[in-house]
Design brief:
By secondary structure, the protein is mainly α. It has helices at 2-10, 13-21, 27-44, 51-82, 86-93, 98-117, 122-134, 140-150, 155-167, 172-185, 190-213, 225-236, 267-286, 291-302, 309-324, 328-344, 350-370, 374-388, 403-420, 426-438, 442-453, 461-476, 484-500, 507-517, 521-538, 547-559, 561-572, 579-593, 598-614, 619-632, 635-648, 653-658.
Length: 662
């Protein structure tokens, strides 16, 4: 191995001498380069080199070559300024030498070794191709042939090869052949079909652009979407543009006398339509159940100006309706298609936008007749909510104005329809109630929540949580101190929810209950009893929200440290109190121990010992214990904890890396 590495380093002598002779690198820098290259060469020659070894070598050589180019420019500029015969000297020094191309050759060789060893790594092949493309290396065609031979089932390989032939070699025939071969091998690739169509239409557009440059034609195959939208709306509302003299005007407002003569047949637009029809028919035959493929073809058609494009558009839409009429995603896309142009074009008149909104609503209404599902209702309500207020937030009240009020009423009707036919899911129900809250109609929201919680969604935790928050808001909005009857009803409702939901699901509700009843001793003790039962059932939690910790903090603020100690002892007596509770109790005792309370230090040690009895492999817990002893204990107790941790932890490397014995 050493002989091979030495041989490879000796082959670099001419390059390194040239770098020193031209003043690009100093001898000391060249020594460092040799040292680094020797390290990389040894890594590549070991028994099982990693892919990261090759990539690290490539990265080093790439940065080195970039530095060489900068140094070369700097040296040339300096020589030009200092030498009286600067032009001749610069010309002489700017000639290509071995150091100018040796770096690229070495990187290519490293990549060749890497892909030889890791033939199945497609990402590595693409990095190799990208480097050769950027440096315009002559091996590009050979590498493409190799990667196609090793990975014929990867569509991206065929697309990359065809794009290189099309853009770099300007070889349309070769690019077309590669795409067609790729489609034979990977007929189920959506990307291949779409990119093949894009390539063919791009080629036709280039031919048309050349005709335009020669003055033999005009226009391109790219559609002006804004003009087409205006014409479509005018044609649909042509009765608004009827001239008083029907013999002197037409529906689009132009004059018959000024109409241009019939244009000659546009061969490029005709050819583009034939290409699209051919590829489209082959694509849907290969992938008849792919909705995304049809959608992408439609978007391409919408962005190009082809002959009889409206007929082709209708054909695609008809096929999609036939094959995907039971798919809610299709109806959602079709409705949003009516709104896409109005959202992207800010200059469109308000009448056109309202017309398109109405069309989208009609599409959704038709969809509900064919696919009356919860998913369809969810997409419909989301669409209407986006129209009402795209930036609505949880605490923001809606302010109906103009046509928005109509859509709010329509949205409430849709929610009622979903409820009547049994398509009201937990998510839709919560949005239904939230809409009333955003409108400021709290009483309607409260009645609706009560109705839904007593119906089919009675097991929905989120719905019960929303109902509880509404009841609390309704009781506390009028007076800061609710009556005893209100407090009793709230407690009964919260008790019903808290005993049903898990601790993680009802986190916000637990905090709300503790805050609400903290000054009501009778109810607070009952909430604590419920929390004990919940922790015994679900556990106290290892990370994140800890219900016992929340209860202890409220008790500490309300009754002091002694009552807090009694409370955490009750929780620690449960089967699974949780690591978060131990940490919270330790922190509580340490805060007092730092003030000078020796009893708190003893309590903290007991808590650490109790926690380690269950979590003896927790490295951070041992580190916290050792840190406490170093600050508050003695060197003897600190060393005792250190050596216990070394002996107990199966992997003590992390512990010893951050701690040392005293």
């Amino acid at each position: 191995m050493a002989d091979v590495v030495q041989f490879r380093l000796e082959r670099m002598v001419d390059e390194l001498d040239d770098l020193e002779r031209r003043g690009i690198f100093t001898r000391r820098e060249i020594s460092e380069i040799v040292k680094q290259r020797r390290k990389f060469e040894y890594r590549l020659k070991r028994r099982s080199p990693l892919k990261e070894d090759f990539l690290a070598y490539v990265e080093y050589e790439t940065q080195l070559d970039a530095l060489r180019r900068l140094r070369k420019k700097s040296v040339a500029r300096r020589e030009t300024e200092n030498d009286e015969n600067g032009a001749k000297t610069t010309k002489k020094r700017s000639r290509k030498s071995i150091s100018d191309f040796a770096g690229v050759v070495r990187i290519v060789q490293i990549y060749r070794l890497a892909v030889t060893r890791f033939k199945g790594d497609v990402e590595l092949w693409f990095k190799y191709l990208e480097f050769c493309r950027q440096r315009k290396n002559g091996r590009m065609k050979k590498i493409l042939a190799q990667v196609i031979r090793f990975h014929p089932k990867v569509p991206g390989v065929w697309i990359y090869a065809a794009a290189w032939e099309f853009d770099h070699n300007l070889n349309v025939t070769g690019a077309r052949a590669l795409m067609q071969n790729g489609l034979r091998v990977c007929p189920n690739s959506e990307d291949l079909w779409v990119e093949y169509l894009r390539m063919e239409l791009t080629y036709l557009n280039k031919l048309k652009a050349r005709k335009v440059a020669l003055g033999e034609d005009e226009g391109t195959l790219v559609r002006d979407q804004r003009v087409s939208d205006q014409k479509q709306w005018i044609s649909e509302n042509k009765d608004l543009f009827m001239s008083l003299d029907e013999g002197t005007g037409n529906v689009d407002g132009s004059n018959v006398e000024n109409m241009e003569p019939e244009k000659k047949l546009d061969l490029f637009r005709e050819q583009g339509l034939r290409v699209l029809q051919t590829i489209y028919s082959g694509a849907i035959k290969a992938l008849p159940s792919s909705f995304i493929l049809r959608q992408r073809f439609f978007e391409i058609l919408d962005g190009t100006d082809l002959a009889q494009s409206e007929d082709m558009r209708e054909e695609i839409l008809s096929d999609m309706k036939r094959d995907f009429s039971k798919d809610p995603e299709y109806w959602d896309w079709l409705a949003k298609l009516e709104m896409t142009d109005s959202s992207s074009n800010q200059e469109m008149s308000e009448d056109i936008k309202l017309s398109q909104m109405q069309k989208a609503v009609q599409v959704y209404e038709e969809a509900l007749k064919i696919v009356p599902s919860a998913m369809m209702f969810n997409r419909y309500t989301k669409f209407l909510m986006d129209i009402i207020d795209p930036q609505v937030g949880e605490n923001k009240n809606l302010e109906p104005s103009g046509h928005i009020e109509h859509y709010i009423t329509h949205l409430l009707t849709v929610y009622e329809k979903a409820e009547s036919i049994g398509c009201l899911t937990e998510d839709i129900a919560c949005k239904y109630i939230s809409l009333y809250l955003q409108l400021g109609r709290l009483n309607e929201a409260r009645k609706l929540a009560e109705k839904l919680c007593s119906g089919k969604l009675s097991d929905s935790v989120q719905l019960w949580l929303l109902r509880a928050s509404i009841e609390v808001r309704d009781v506390t909005r009028n007076s800061p101190s609710p009556s005893k009857a209100d407090m009793l009803s709230l407690f009964e409702l919260l008790r019903k929810i808290l005993t049903k939901a898990s601790i993680s699901e009802a986190e916000s509700l637990w905090l709300m209950a503790l805050k609400l009843f903290v000054n009501q001793k009778q109810y607070f003790e009952k909430v604590v009893d419920i929390s004990l039962i919940s922790v015994a059932k679900d556990g106290g939690g290892e990370n994140g929200f800890s219900l016992p910790s929340a209860v202890i903090n409220f008790v500490l603020q309300k009754d002091g440290i002694q009552h807090a100690r009694e409370m955490y002892k009750r929780f620690l007596a449960l089967p699974r109190p949780g690591l978060a509770l131990y940490r919270n109790c330790i922190e509580l005792e340490l805060n007092l121990a730092f003030v000078g309370d020796k009893d708190c230090l003893a309590n903290a040690r007991k808590l650490f010992e109790a926690a380690l009895a269950t979590y003896d492999q927790n490295t951070s817990l041992w580190q916290d214990y050792y840190s406490m002893e170093t600050k508050l204990g003695t060197s003897e107790t600190a060393n005792g904890v250190y050596w216990r941790a070394r002996k107990t932890l199966r992997d003590s490397a992390a512990f010893t890396a951050l701690t040392k014995p005293l």
